[in-house]
# Entry
Amino acid sequence: MSQNVDHSNSEGEIDTVMVEQRLFPPADEFRAKSQFKSLEEYQQFYDAAVADPIAFWSAQAKEHLHWFEPFTQTLDWNCPNARWFLGGKTNASYNCLDANVDAGLGDKVAIVWEGEPGETRQITYRELQEEVSQFANVLKRLGIHAGDVVSIYMPMTPELAIAMLACARIGAVHSVIFAGFSAEAIADRNNDAGAKLQLTSDGLYRRGKVLPLKETVDQALSKSPTVENCVVLKRVGNETPMTAGRDHWWHELASQESRTCPAEQLDSESPLFILYTSGSTGKPKGIRHTTAGYNLYAKRTFQWVFDHQADDIYWCTADCGWITGHSYVVYGPLSAGATVLMYEGAPNYPAEDRFWEIVEKYRVTVLYTAPTAIRAFIKWGDEHVEKHDLSSLRLLGSVGEGINPQAWMWYHEKIGGGRCPIVDTWWQTETGGIMMSPLPGAIATKPGSCTKPLPGIVPKIVGEDGMEVHRGRGGMLCIDTPWPGMLRGIWGDEQRYQDQYWSKVPGMYLTGDNARQDSDGYYWIMGRIDDVINVSGHRLSTIEVESALVSHPAVAEAAVVGKPDEIKGQAIAAFVTLRGDASEELRKDLKLHVRKEIGALAQPDDIRFTSALPKTRSGKIMRRLLRDIASGKEQSGDTSTLEDYTVLAKLRDDEE
Ligand code: 7RM
# Structure
């Protein structure tokens, strides 16, 4: 990083204060085996897609999905409503299972699973096809038809994936709710979706303890009048209350059903799932995805970004309760015939080396995880990593937040042994799949940049006036043309879909993030639009100041927010967790460090040491809550997605 220059500002643009110079081209050995071997190859493919997106996606869909009936129209685009592959009939469960079995992969392991207590299971594509079919028959027996919504609140067991695929097989719509949410949150989502059936388990293991999921579900169901039945997987064997007539054991129902169930021939646009995301305030939005376009996009982006090879052992650490689990644990990799590793529990149980033990034990080749986890590993210490042989790894991925260059370097060196490319993948629940990422054999990486858009994706960076900003300047990240994986709407609230994503910049999809493009055309995500800090008329992005803080050896994690300041408009407040002990000198040292790294303008006025930062259950820092604390305000807005409520209380107590 070095000092930046240009602080002149035009309407709505964001200043950048960080310049990252390091460049990591893929090793020749990696490149030789990869699908895209050079920047030129990527560029040709990308340009062809831009030149004729209809021809591009039509060819992709014909080649990479199974069609019971071929589609007759590639795209019907009536902004903001897209319909893809009209007239076609397909099935996502068929594409994930039958298509692979028919292609000779029946005996290939589809899912390798490890429970937190250490038990392990391997399920082949043929077995998975049978399990899914059997459970699809259970769903039918319970009166579930195409279009009905099934609410899933389950631990990371193979049955969670089986449940999703069983819904897909018969055209039911799944709504997976992360098994850490409260009864209230489940009931809200069930009611919004009009869910007919609840799937859950007796409990799950987390850090060696049993969490009784069914008890939470019972509370939720007392407020979910649309739910008629509840199927309970026996996972932990604890005492579990069952309501006669409503509740059924999974294994009892399944044992009565046949293990064949032909996949329904579904219209391309038939709904596949709803996934709720919290808006920053207000009630959660049910993001709506449909069958063919989503399936194609998840499959192809998986193959491109993870450079899928037939013998890969691929591990995405995300829970199926998040979009990352939908697209890159289930639909993407299984459509591609990959072997997917699934782990039930915590990364620090029984010790901080659990992930590395798993990588070593199963010879994992591709690891896809989140910056929040990477920063935790750094904090826990290198000794946990060094105990294990990680030489099987060939590719690393990151998703969920920006990865600070310092954390990127650690991931590269300590986990990747300096030889594995890192794919920093930028995307959203709404986009269905990865939008920007290096193609690892083709695009040299820069720590902290998601590099380039994937084929068929046209990003634009615009200012408040809706005009594209100058190259190098930050602005709102928009997407200019429809893509098959895009959300089709918000469940039950089409007005909100229009308002939130398509109104501010007419004709373009508004992502809600800021970004800039550097002189090589690389994209840098600058954080959420709402999180921009305005210091003396200079609009600064959170990630750059945070990255400067994290580049100090004493810092584990940092979040910065603006707080009101009479002179500057806003001043920067930084919340910092440390690798070691706090001191007054360190506070001064950190301010100087930021000043030296990125300039006086970005120097925090206020540095608060804390033992933890408030995060969502998927590990994203909730800067909105820190903003209230920094400015001494009462908490406003929704806190239901907060992972650990005690963190907020502690932060408030820390205040003098
Ligand atoms: C996949 C997922 C979406 C938001 C998105 C960003 C942030 C995700 C990155 C990132 C910087 C990344 N879906 N985000 N990936 N920011 N670099 N590689 O996370 O719907 O849960 O969140 O997450 O702000 O808009 S999500």
